[in-house]
Amino acid sequence: MEALPLPNNRNYAHPYIPNTVPEVRDAMLKEIGLTSMDQLHDAIPDSLKLNREMNLPPAMTEYELRRHIDGLLAKNKHGAAYLNFLGAGCWQHFIPAVCDEINQRSEFVTAYAGEPYEDHGRFQTLFEYQSLMAELVDMDVVNVPTFDWAQGASTAIRMAGRITDRSVALLPKSVDPDKVMIINNYCTPVMELRFVEIDETTGKMDLNDLRSKLSSEIAAVYFENPGYLGIIEDQGQEISELAHSVNAISIVGVDPISLGVLQPPSQYGADIVCGDLQPLGMHMNYGGGQAGFIATRDEEKYVMEYPSRLFGIVPTEVEGEYGFGDVAYERTSFALREKGKESVGTQTALWGITAGVYLSLLGPTGMQEVGETIMQKSQYAAKKLSAIPGISLRFAETAFFKEFVVDFNDTGLTVAEINARLSEAGIFGGKDLSGSFPAWGQCALYCVTEIHSQADLDRLADTIQTIVRKP
Description:
The chain is of the alpha/beta class and 471 residues long. It has 13 helices and 15 strands. The strands form four sheets. It has a seven-stranded mixed sheet with strand order 2-8-7-6-5-3-4, sandwiched between helices. A four-stranded antiparallel sheet has the order 11-12-15-14, covered by helices on one side. It has a two-stranded parallel ribbon with strand order 1-13. The model is unreliable at 1-6 (pLDDT under 50).
């Protein structure tokens, strides 16, 4: 195959990169007072520049490239082919076919954000999603989705910092370490994160430690219910009251599919609610369909601190006529540009539409039914696993929703060894927690949802029992 000319050839125009036609490129350089493309990179130290040609393999034909990529993708293992008990932030739930049918329609499939005039239908679907989500969490205002729960929590904490004019947020040590890294990255340098101990017996927040860390510099107390470890935090009212005692904001992260059976956070003192929409009609696409939400009361001090778009019913230029459009657009970085409190950026509007479809399909009765089904099946699985000699539940006396921590320390095997043998049997075991919580030794986080049958759960227990009995 004949090699293409190198891109640094002044007569070379790249077929896929715009403005590389020599005449166009030279005109652009002249306009900004430069004579070469290399001058654009003068600010980069020479030590960071590659001073040789890249040793790339020969270019593939389209057919060769397709075969190569197909071969790489074939190495992936997915939940549809295996019996899957992984959760920890991306969960395998049943997806009604109509969710995919609607979110793949051409007018929605690239639902980036959209502008008025041509996008009133998209605005309406997002308004309907916000309305349904607000009803589910028992709040008034819901934003167009963020990227994921971690970003939703990060933004909620930064909102609290601006509302209170304070710079410290408290989080329990049980929050997912990966999520904490994102929150810390997003909040630095305007907010500082400090951590509250958890009770080693129950896994719940240690209220005495929380009391000791509350002060006039605390902007927010953030906790999750259910938490990363699956635990239902039944101290929510007390936590919120303690936060409010120092005029801090109570922020609760929640798995929305639990709200058919669990009390919404607004009813135990939450000022801001956030979470992930992925359980509401989104597939596990290599880690997500992730999409975060934020919800608050309809109070100006909260609404004006949302950085993201809010859609509502607004009057048009025609008297008596209404349409769907932005609420308080002037507070966003679209309007304020570099003076914005936070950048709006890309938002996962498509997943908001999907979540709206899911919620409209299930309704209150359906959400209650799926929540009860999950709890019944997860309790059954936990009971079966903890009956195996050498295996116990880490927080045996604490209520949980769909995830629970299984303790394998008395089996003499590591979680990695158990998961490897489960994989050989066509099962994805729980998430290994030994790296994130080393003090607990060999523990794993198992997830059970409505997709698992009793036969699936019996198969899991029987396979693990066989594994731990082997010498």
